[in-house]
Amino acid sequence: MQYQRAQEIVASPSEFEVSYNGVSVWIDKLHEDGRTATVHLRHSLEERSEVNVNELKEH
Predict the structure, then answer these.
(1) Burial 38-53 (b: 16+ CB within 10 A, else e)
(2) What drives induction of this protein's expression (predicted)?
(3) What pTM was estimated for this model as a whole?
(4) What residue ranges do the domains of the chain occupy?
(5) What is the Cα–Cα distance from 34 to 37, expressed in whole angstroms?
(6) CA distances (Å), 32 to each of 1, 6, 27, 35, 42, in order?
């Protein structure tokens, strides 16, 4: 996914399905480096990971 698209998803009031390594995630925060984001699994609010935005996929 491109960083610009990730920004649009985060800013949108609608829900979009996004996955990381085949697992459904929420994007919590986009980092200022323009390459990474903090995400969490849809079923676990406590488990957060920093990932490369280009590894996220929109469904």
Answers:
(1) ebeeeeeeeeeeebeb
(2) Expressed only in the forespore compartment of sporulating cells.
(3) 0.86
(4) 3-58
(5) 9
(6) 16, 13, 14, 8, 23
Instruction: Say if domain 3-58 classifies as CATH 2.30.30.
Output: yes
H or E segment at 41? Answer: strand 36-41
Q: Token pair of 21, please?
A: 């390594």
**pLDDT given for residue 10 in this prediction:** 95
What pLDDT, on the 0 to 100 scale, is given for residue 28?
94
* Low-confidence stretches of the chain (pLDDT beneath 50): none
HSE-up of residue 29 (Cα within 13 Å, Cβ side):
7
pLDDT tens digit string along 16-30?
999 999 999 999 999
